[in-house]
Amino acid sequence: MTTARRRGILALVTAIILLALGAGAAFAVGDALGIRTEPSAQMEPAAPVVPVVAEPVLPPSFTFDAPDTERVSVALEELTDAVAAASGTSGEAVLTVRIDPTLIATDDAYAIEGDTAALLIRAGDEDGVTRGIYDLSNQVRAAAPLTDLIGEHEASRLPLRMTDLGAVGVIPDPAEWESGDDYSHASKAFAAVMQPEPPYVDQTALAAAFEDFDGFLRHSLANGFNAVAFPGFVEYVTFDGAPDGPVYADGDDHRDKALALREAYAPFWDRADELGMKVFLRTDMLALTGPLEQHLTHEFGSLDTENPDLWSVYTAGLDELYDAVPALDGVLIRIGEAGPVYDVGGWDYYSALEVTSVDAVRTMLEAFTAQAEASDREVIFRTWSVGVGAVGDMHTNPASYEAVLGGIDSPALIVSTKYTLGDFYTWLPLNDTLEQGAQRRIVEFQSRREFENFGAFPNDLGPQYQWALQQLIAQNDQLEGVWVWTQDGGPWRAGPMSLYLKSGFWQLYELNTQLAASLAQNPEADVAGITAAWAREYFSEDPATVEAIVEAMTHSREAIAQGMYVPQFAAQRVFAIGLEPPPMMWIFEWDILTGDSAVLDVLYSIVRDSGSDGVGAAIGDGAEAVAAVEQMHGLVSQTDAATWRSSEMRAAFLDTLGYELDTLRLLEAYRAMILHQGQWHDTLSSDAHAQWDADRIAYEQRAAEHLAKYEGNLDYPAFNLTAAQLGVERAVRDEPMAWIARVLLVLALAWVVIGMLAARTRLVAKPGAAAARATWIASTRPWRARESTLGMLELDRWLLLIVPAGLLIATRAVQTSLLSWTHLAVIIGAWVVFALVLRLFVWERSPWPVIAAVGGVVMLRCIVTLFALSFTGPGGYWFAFWTDPLLRTVYISVAFALFVWVFVAAGWALSAQVRARRATGYVLAAVGAGLLVPAVVVGAIGLETALTLWNDEMGLLPWGLARILGITTYLEIPSVTPWAAAAFGGALLVVGLLLAVPWRRRRVPAGASRPEARGDAGTSAS
Q1: DSSP letter string over 535-547?
Q2: Which three-class secondary structure state does DSSP give residue 305?
Q3: Peptide bond preceding 286: is omega within 30 degrees of 0, i.e. cis?
Q4: Pairing assessment for the beta strands 413-418 and 378-382 based on DSSP bridges
Q5: Which domains does the chain have, with CATH numbers?
Q6: How far is residue 4's CA from residue 9's CA, in Å, rounded to a whole number?
Q7: How many CB atoms neighbour CB 647 within 10 A?
Q8: How far apart are the first and last CA of the chain?
Q9: To the nearest whole percent, how much of the chain has pLDDT over 70?
Q10: How far is Cα 352 from Cα 564, in angstroms, rounded to an integer?
Q11: Among the listed residues 411, 410, 239, 433, the one whose alpha carbon sits nearest the alpha carbon of residue 319
C-alpha cells in the first residue's frame, strides 16, 4: 500500500471518528437542553356567575352588652366602624355577647339568636364570639340583612388562616418606584425604624409602624385571619446560649442590635397575641450574619447543613427568643430562595442557599421540630425549594416530597405549599403534592398576583380558589389552613406602587384576600356573593352598579388567561435545561416582554404543533382577551357615577381597565409578530414574512403609544420593552443578513471550486488560483500542505491568510447580525492568539503550509455556517437550533468535526517540517494559549458580567434573566468556570511546550540525513 493511500485511509478514519465525536457532542447538547413537553391537567373551577343583588339593607344603630376584653372590644370597634361607613342606619338594636363554654366549645363555632332589635352571640370562647362579631360587621359592609346570620355556625373548616405582613412598615416613597427596574425582593419593611448606629431604633418611626401594624391586624381579623407571618429571626437573637459559646464577641454590635430590635418588636408580637393572632417569625435558611457565618465555619469546618450540631446553634437561638418573648408561636422556614435579591443594604443580615440536600432538610427539620415540641411551639416548613435531586422539585414531585419528608411526623410540624404546581401562574395544574403526606398541611395563595401585573388588573380568583380547596380537602384530611399573601411575592418596586391598605388601587386585589379567608372558613361559600359583598363594601351600594361590577369581574380571568398567556404554550408542561419553565415565558419576568430566541422559538413550535391552525388560534386568543376587557370597560363605564361611593374609586376602576386594555392590545400585537416571525423561519414563506413585517409596524406603534402614556406612571407603569425592542432589531436584520450570507456563501464556494479545478487545469496560473488550490489541498490532504505552497507568488501567499481570515470575521459578524462585538472579540481574539503562537513556533520555517491547512478548514467551517444562515438569517439559524433536533444534531456533528479537523490539519501540515511529536506540541500549545487568554479576560471581568453582555447582544436567553436571577445562578454555572477553562488552557500550553522542545536526539550515523533538516531545507526552498 502506497504512502498516499495509507494517509488517505487514515484521514478518512479520522474524519469518521471526528463526525462520531461531533454526533456525541450534539446528543450531549440535546440532552442538556432537554426541551420537551407534556400535557398539563388544568384546574376545573365552576364558571363564574352574576348573582341577583338585592336592595341594600341599612344596619341598626347598636348598643353593646359584651365582655370587657381587648379582643371583644376591638371586634366591636370594627362593627361600629362598619355601621359608620354605611350610607345610614335604620332603627336601633342591642347586641349581647356571651361566652359560655358549656354551650359551644368547638374552636370558633358560634350561634346568633334574636331579631332585628336584639341579637345574641353565644360561643364557647373568644374565638367564637369575635368571629360572630366580625361576621356581623362584614354583613353590615355588604349591606345585607343581619338576620341572615341567625342560627348556629360551625367551626371554620380550616382553623389556621395566616396572612403575610401586608405593607406594614413600608413607606410609599414615589422616588423608589420611579425607575421601575428595581427587582429586589426586599420589602424594606421597618427600614425607617432600624438604624445602623446606637440606639439602633428610631422611636418615632417605631411608633408609626406600630400603629400601622395594629391597623393591619384589625383589618386582617375582620377578614377572618388568625395568624401573621412576621419577617426576621437572627435579627432578634444574641446567640449567647449557643452550645459552643457565644457567637458574638464582646463589643460586637450585632448583640446590641438584637436586643434593641427584640425590645422594639416585642410589643408588636404581644399585641398580636392579645388580639388572638398567632405570630410566626418568617426566615430563610440559612439566615446569617457575618460573625454567625464565621462561627459556624470555625466550629464545623463549613456551612455543613447536614451536621446536627450546626442546627443546635439555631435552636438555641429559638430557645432564647421564646423565653424572652412568650407571645411568639413559632417559626416559618423557607430554603428555596436566598441571596442578595432579598438583602437590605447597610445591614449585616443575609441568607444563603445551603440547605440543598435531602439529608440537610431532614436534619434541619428534626432539630427544629424537637425544639418546637419541647417549647410548645410550631414549625412551618415551606416546600418551595431549589437544590439537587429530590429537594429541587419536592414542591411539585410527589416522589421527591416523600423522599424529603416521609417519616417526619412531628405534631409540631406544618408543611406549607403553593396551591399551583409551580409558582402563582394561571394554567398550572393543582399541586398534587398537597394531597399526600402525614404532616399537617397549609395551602399558600397570593392575592396580588405578581406575574399578572401585581394585581393592577381585575383578577377574580374565587372560583379557582374554591375548586382547589374543595379538591384538596377531599383528598387530604391533614389540610388545616391557608397562608394568604396580601402583598408579598416578587419584586416590591418594579410594578405599580400599590401597597396594601396604603396606596394605589389595593382594593382590587383585596377581593382575593377576602375570598381566600372566607373559603378557608367555609369551602362551600357563595363566591359570587362574596364578590358582590366586596363590590358593595368598596364601590357602591346600588344593586345595578354592583351587578355590573360583578359581571365585569366574571370576565377578568378570561382576559388574564388569554391575554397575558399564550394558551397553546401555557397549557403544556415544558421542560428545558433541567428546569420547568413557567407558562408565561414570553413575559420574563413580571413586566419584561422578552425578545430572546430560546423562549420565542420554542413557544412558536409548541403553538404550531397545538392544532391544525395553532398560530391562528393563538393570535385569535389575544384578540378575545382584548374583547373581554372592552366588555368589562363598557359594563363599568355605563354605571351611574352618582351611585358610586366616590368618584375617585370609579375613576380608578375605569383607569385600571383602560390600562389593561392598552397593555393587552400591546401584547396582542407582539404575539402576532413573534408567531409570524417563527412561522417565517419555519416555513420560509414570503407571506409569513410579510405578515411579520405588518405586525412589526403595528407593534412598534402600540409600543410607542404604551410608553408615551404609561412610562413614569406610578399606579399604572409601562411594561419594560427593552428586551422586546432588542429582539425586533435583530429580527429586522435577519433578511439582510441572509442575503449577505448567501453572497458570502457563493464567494466561498467559488473559492473552493477554483481550488479544486486549479489542481488539474491551467487555471492555477491565474492570480489567486494557486492560493485557492493550496487551501483546498491543505485542508483535505494536509500532509501535502508544504508541496501545495511551493513556488507561490507573494499575492497568493497573502491570499492564503486574508481570504480565510476575512471570511471568518464576516461569517461571525453575520451570525451576530453585526450586533455582538463581544462575540467577535472573543472568537477572533482566540484565533489571533492561536495563530501568533503557531507563528512563533514555526519561526524561521515557512508558515505558509500551516496557514494553508488552517485557512482551508476554516473556509469549510464557514461554508457550513453560512449555509445555515442563508435561509432566514441568524434568526433562522437559532430557530433550527432550538426547535429541530435533527438539524441541530447534523449541524453540530459536522461543525464540531470541522472545528477539530482544523487542529488535526495544522499538526499534520507541521509534521512535514518538525515531525509529529513537535507538531503536536505546537498545536496543543497554540490551542492552550488561544483558550487561556480569553478565559483569563472573562474571569477578570466576571463570568456573570461577561455572559450578560454577550447575551444582551446575541439575544439567546431572556434579557431579564441577568437582571433578576443571574444567568450563572439560574443555569447553575459555577463562577469559577472561566478560571477552570484558563487552567485547562494553561495545562494544554504546558504539555504543548514540553512536546515542542527538542528532545535529546539519537545519534545519527555519519552521512545520514536528519528528517527535520530535510523538512526545514525543503521549506526554506519553498
Answers
A1: HHHHTB--HHHHH
A2: coil
A3: yes
A4: parallel
A5: 61-153 (3.30.379.10), 160-173+183-521 (3.20.20.80), 559-719 (no CATH)
A6: 9
A7: 10
A8: 29
A9: 96
A10: 33
A11: 239
What are the grid coordinates assigned to 468, written together?
A: 382547589
In sequence order, what are the beta bridge partners of 229? 280
d(CA 888, CA 892): 6
Reference 563, options 593, 535, 534; nearest CA is 593
- Angstrom CA distances, 958 to 469, 581, 925, 967, 970, stand at 35, 12, 37, 9, 11
Cell digits of residue 986: 494553561
Q: Enter the DSSP assignment of 226.
A: -
The span from the CA of 201 to the CA of 869, in Å, is 63
Closest CA to 395 of 387, 100, 558, 144: 387
What the block records as the C-alpha cell of 781 is: 490532504
* Dihedral angle computed from the Cα positions of residues 741, 743, 747 and 752, in that order, rounded to the nearest 10 degrees: 50
Residue 164 backbone phi and psi in degrees, to 5: -75, -165
Per-residue pLDDT at 543: 97
Burial of 732 (0-12, 13-18, 19+ CB in 10 A): middle
Residues 6+ apart with CB under 8 A from 674: 586, 600, 603, 604, 727
pLDDT per residue as tens digits for the range 38-51: 888 999 999 999 99
Mean pLDDT, rounded, for 223-250: 95
* Angle in degrees, CA 296, 302, 306, rounded to 5: 90
At 318, which amino acid appears?
Answer: L
Residue 770 host element (H or E): helix 769-780
Q: Residue 767 — left, alpha, or beta (φ > 0 → left; ψ -120 to 50 → alpha)? A: beta
Integer angstrom CA distances of residue 594 from 441, 442, 725: 37, 34, 9
Using DSSP, state whether 947 is helix, strand or coil: helix
What's the grid cell of residue 711?
Answer: 412610562
For 689, list phi and psi in degrees, rounded to 5: -65, -40
Given the C-alpha cell 396551591, which residue does it identify?
419
CA pair distance 282, 210, nearest whole angstrom: 18
Residue type, 910: L
Q: How is 153-175 classified by DSSP, letter by letter?
A: EPPPSSSEEEE--TTTT----HH
Identify the sign of the CA torsion 929, 931, 932, 937.
positive
Contact predicate 104/111, CB 8 Å = yes
Distance CA 660, CA 665 (A): 8
Element housing 122 (H / E)? strand 118-123
What is the CA angle 755-761-762, rounded to 5? 105
Q: What is the pLDDT of residues 943-992, one digit of tens each?
A: 999 999 999 999 999 998 888 878 887 787 888 999 999 999 999 999 99
Residues 6 or more apart whose CB falls under 8 angstroms from that of 10 comprise: none
- The amino acid that residue 313 corresponds to is V
| Residue 390 to residue 752: CA distance in whole angstroms | 54
Please tell me what DSSP assigns to residue 4.
H
State how far the Cα of 161 lies from the Cα of 158, in Å rounded to an integer. 7
